[in-house]
Structure formats: structure tokens, C-alpha cells
Amino acid sequence: MTLFQASEIVKVFPGVRALDGVTLSLEAGSVHALLGENGAGKSTLIKVVTGLYRPDGGRLLLDGREVSFGSPHESASAGIGVVHQERNLIPGFTVGENIMLQKLPTSRGLIDRAAIRSEALRWLAELELDIDPDQPVTELSVAQAQLVEIAKALSVESRVLLLDEPTASITPNEAALLFRVVEKLKDDGRAVLFVSHKLEEVFQICDTVTVLRDGASVLSGGALSELTRDQVVDLMVGRVHEALNLPDRTVDTSVAPILELRGVGTATGHSEVDLTVRPGEIVGLYGLVGAGRSELAKALLGLDRITAGEVLVRGQAVKIRTVRDALRNHKIGYVTENRKEEGVFLEQSVARNIAVTIWDRLRKFLGYVPAKSETEMVKSYVEQLGIRIASPSQHAGTLSGGNQQKVSLAKWLAAQTEILIIDEPTVGIDVRTKDAFHTLIWDLAANGLAILLITSDLPEMITLADRVVVMRDHRIQGELPNTHDYDQMSQQVIRLIHATPSTLGAA
């Protein structure tokens, strides 16, 4: 039975036909994949379905009846839940308040906080999340926030649930929990739309697929059991995608580390962290949600207090107090996992975003930074990274996720960093752009850049890292040389993550 249908949907923005007659049908008791490259129209379609955008053509049907939503609240009230790729939690609220926001329980006209806590715990338990409902969402990691978003969507008890990149910032273990919930929703007769760039997940949990390319449906409702991965990628990009083939690259282990941590502890809770990164080396930092990987990176940049041990850069003990200090005095850059809030200025031009780290070099009399200087400097990085823009004056907020991530990376390259921390580099990025990013990161290391890579994507880690350092509970569990053999490495990494102190020697 078809629960929901978007029929011949058209959405036009000035100069762009974002959706051109797209059709999507969601069946009860089924998980449907929505695939396409960045900019294909997936997020635009979801925003039309949930009332953020009004369609310029076509119809939306729920239970066979035509519907029209003027806001996300209206679509939610009709039984359509959504988890967007961008975070939609309210920073000033607690976890429980965010989860229950659309139907806050009351008692005698007042907010019932005990009921909020009780109901929130119910939905957190569905995802097997050990998070306090009274905790402010500002204290959550990106991955924890993503899981709370999913709990929030489930709390509406939606008959139709739209998941836009739900596993982008979570590890395989957390994804497995989510997939169990999705299976339960499917068994309950609900319709689930699953948007992901991780094709292995799509083939694992989805029944049918719609593929968009350049705003149009090139496949609508195809059975995944009848398709191969190459056929799906061919539909997405218009040709069979070639497997990534990276050139040989070696690390000179006789060279002293450019970055070294000795017994580092932080105010966040890290303890006895030892870590080294050499020039030309990619060191991977892997762990489950809450392991403290991103928090450790931020402590290195002066965003959290280091309480014990020492940090050495080029063999000298340093105390880094700010991001500016890290960049100017130690040539350390940080590509954040949260590109939309921390990585780029969405309302500023591409030129300004890339040039921001070198304004001191470009500044003229009385602090004036000529736009021409910005533009000329930016051109080389746009070409080097393959950033697809209309002009350097284009606002970064109008770019696809992949191009925004390239802009975020370009500003650190422009600053001529020698140590680069890259946090979740390919979250929400399509398969072809992901391969381009992997090649780029590999080439940067080959040219001598020291890279500390944080990723929840284990295949990405095994593809790129020279060594894999595994963290749990803000401590280093162990370190593995990377053989780039996925089966072997994945087993060793997972074993190390779950090893107890008594079995670490055997792991």
C-alpha cells in the first residue's frame, strides 16, 4: 500500500530548475532509498515534502489524498517525520525538551518536566542511547546530536519517516543500532525514506530506490535486489564509477614527529594520551561516539584546556591558546566536521571564505583587504581543488556540501599549514566527490603535509591512514599499522575498540 507519493514535482529557483518532474512513492512496511550526487535535488525534494519549500508543480499525496504543507509543523502533524542533514536542535534547550518539542506534555497548563524526561528516556532507549534527557544539547558531540535528532523524529510516531544522511556522523556500531530501529519501523508498517551516500548501507537495509540526476528522476521505485552497485552508481553519475586507485606513498619513519602528544590530559576528560604524527603521514583517529576524538583535536587548537602532559610541535613543547595561535605560530589548521556552522561563512563569498586565514598577508593601509587580491589568490585553490563555482563572489551557502567542504579545506591550504587536522572530511558527500577528496588528502600527505584524520567511516580510514589510533572513553586503546586490507583491519579495529584493559595486550 502506498502511504505517500510525490508526483511530478517541480521546484524552480532563480536561474535553476532544482527539481524537474520528480516522482517518489513510499510504501507501507518498506525502506526506500533516495540517491544522487550532491546537487541532484535530494535535499530540495525533502524540503518540498516537509513544507519548507512550496512546489512550483506536481502533487503530494498522503493515503491517496492530495495534501499541501505550509510548514514543517504541518507535515509533522500529518505524520511525516524528518531528520535533516543539517542539525535542527535548539541550543538553549535540553535533550529531552528537543525530543519532545512538537508535543510537549503539560499538567494543569504547565510544562510537565517529569513527563518530558520520562518520554525522552523512552525514545533514547529505542536507540540504546545513554544520554541524560536533562543534558543541554550544546554539550553533545555532532554524532550524539544526530542520534538525538533521530529520537526526536521517532517521538512524533510518524507513519512516514525521512532520514537525510542519518549515519553521516556516526560509527558502524551506532549505525547498526539505527538499522535495528528502522527494521522495527518497517515491521510496524511505516514507510521510511533513507538518503545516504554510503551505498553499502543502502543495499543492506533498503528495498527500493529512486535515483535523481540533475533534478530529474532517472529511476523511480526500482527494486534494489535487481541492481548492482555499479548500476546504481552509473545511474547517479551517468557512467560507471571507476574504483579509486591511489599511487604508492611511503612515510619516512626516521624523520622526527612534527606533532607529538605525551601523556596529555584535558578538561574534557582525556587521560594519558600519547600520539605522534610525522611529515607526510596520515594518522587515523578512530572510535565510537563519545570517544573524545574531536574534543582532543579542539584541545590541540586551544579550544579546551590541557591539564596534564605536554604537546610538542617540531620537537618543542608548546602551549597553544587559540586557533589563531595554532595557525600563526605553529602552522596547524583544522577542517571541522561541522562545515555549515564552523567551517564556512555561508553568507560570505567563496573568495572571502578562503582568504580569511591570510588577511594579514593581503591587508593594505588601515587594514583594508582589496577584493581583487582575494579573488586572484582564490583562483589557484579553486582550480587545484576542483571547486565548482560560478565566480569567486558566489556565496558559500549556495554551494553543494562537497564544494563547501573544499572551500573549508582551501582556507587552510592558503595559510600554508604544515599540520592539518581533518575531522569527518566526507560527511554527506557523494561517491564521486568522496573519491576526489580521498585523492586530495593522499596527495597532500605525499607532498609532506602531516595529517591527523578523524573519521567515523571505517572504509575511509582504512583507505587513507598509514596508522590507525583507536580511542575509547577519552583514552588511547591502541595503535595499528594499516595494511589497507579491509577485512583484516576492520576486525582488528573493532576488537581493539571493545577490548578491556586486561585483554589489550592480546588485541
Automatic annotation (TrEMBL):
Compartments where located: Cell membrane
Domain of life: Bacteria
SUPFAM superfamilies noted in UniProt: P-loop containing nucleoside triphosphate hydrolases
Matching CDD domains: ABC_Carb_Monos_I, ABC_Carb_Monos_II
Keyword RNA-binding annotated: no
Cellular component GO terms, alphabetical: plasma membrane
Membrane topology: Peripheral membrane protein
Protein name per the record: Sugar ABC transporter ATP-binding protein
